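Example record for the data management plan.
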Amino acid sequence: MIRGISQISLLSAVDGAVLLDQHLRIQGFGVRFLILLPPGSKVEDASSGRTYLCDQWGLRHQSVFSFCHKCEGASGMIVSQDGEVKAVKVEQGQLYFWDGILD
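Corresponding structural encoding:
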């Protein structure tokens, strides 16, 4: 999985999300999901408990936040150009992220 994430991170130079199918095959990159979050939506850092407005983040973050918010049960990974990875998930209607999951 770590090697796969490393390969996907090469695509992260293009802003937007990387879309994988159920077999973890890349179906698209630089994707922007058209699902919009309700105004004022917040995401919570699962480690610190701090909350942030979703719209203060960039396109790749907002795309994954939107997708996970709309498709409860889905998990998202946000891979930055520098190799940092965040995991995203909705639990009981609350959007959470876990930062630095490969550290």
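Summary line stored alongside the record: The helical segments are 2-10, 59-70.
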